[in-house]
Amino acid sequence: MARLLAACALASLWSASARAGVIWDQIGATGSDLPATGPEGFYRYGSQVFAGEPQFDLIALDDFTLAGESRIDRFEAVIQGYGNWSGTGAIQGFVARVFASPQQAAAGWSNAVATVQLTAPSAYTAFGTGLLCGFDVDITLGAGRWFIGLQAIMPGSGGQVGVVISTLGAPAQAFQANPGGGFSVPGNLIERPVNLAYRLGGSAVPGPGACVMLVVAAGFLERRRVS
User: What Cα–Cα distance (Å) separates residue 4 from each residue in 11, 12, 215?
Assistant: First the structure.
């Protein structure tokens, strides 16, 4: 039995590793999918925690769909500054949040199904119309449609930070939520006719049935060796 359990554990680890990779990509490989302007005249949309001014905190959300329970281990975004932007040195960190709907984000940060505090990367990579940054995360989500966003933590004195738009993905739809109401947006939510430059890496979580089948197969081999 010990051999069977060990075989199941090792096979499950192999199965998860074998399926790990990119599970959603609106960044692309070359930066050519990140346009310099969009349908509303902007190429980035604000997504920021304004240190000391929580009423202005906002998040740029885009949706992705999972066919089954999955573990997200990598979150990447292309960002760019604007306004009184003084460079990445003013960024104090980032927050990644996942919501079941943009309306829940507009109603308050506590409605997030996952919140991950992230330190600022040591370096950013120029990519397309912005700066590529990536983070290791550990988020497990079930099947369904989810909305994710990345917020830069930075005081307003350093300007504003937004997520760059992308031509990848369909339909072209994203949201900005401002639950503190500082921007006086009706319902604290704006729908945008664009996609955002986000990418997720991860893998499907093996179901219990896969392990059962492995145990049965291993047991059959054990009996063959005994006989």
Answer: 10, 12, 6
In a domain, 55, yes or no: yes
Residue 180 maps to a domain: yes
Q: In 3D, which of 201, 215, 179 has the Cα closest to residue 19?
A: 201
Distance CA 73, CA 37 (A): 31
Distance CA 148, CA 201 (A): 13
Number of other CB atoms surrounding residue 21 within 10 Å: 10
Which domain range does residue 80 map to?
Answer: 21-211
Domain annotation covers residue 222: no
pLDDT in tens, 52-90: 999 999 999 999 999 999 999 999 999 999 999 989 999
Per-residue pLDDT tens for 111-155? 999 999 999 999 999 999 999 999 999 999 999 999 999 999 999
Ramachandran assignment for 21, one of left (phi > 0), alpha (psi -120 to 50 degrees), beta (any other): left
The more confidently predicted of residues 8 and 48 is 48
pLDDT of residue 225: 53
Residue 116: strand, helix, or coil: strand
Predicted model pTM: 0.84
In angstroms, the CA 33 to CA 42 distance is 15
Our measurement of the distance from residue 126's CA atom to the centroid of its chain's CA atoms, rounded to an integer in Å, reads 20
Is 157 within a domain?
yes
Any bridge partners for residue 128, and if so which? none
Total domains in the fold of the chain: 1
Rg over alpha carbons for the chain, rounded to the nearest Å, is 21
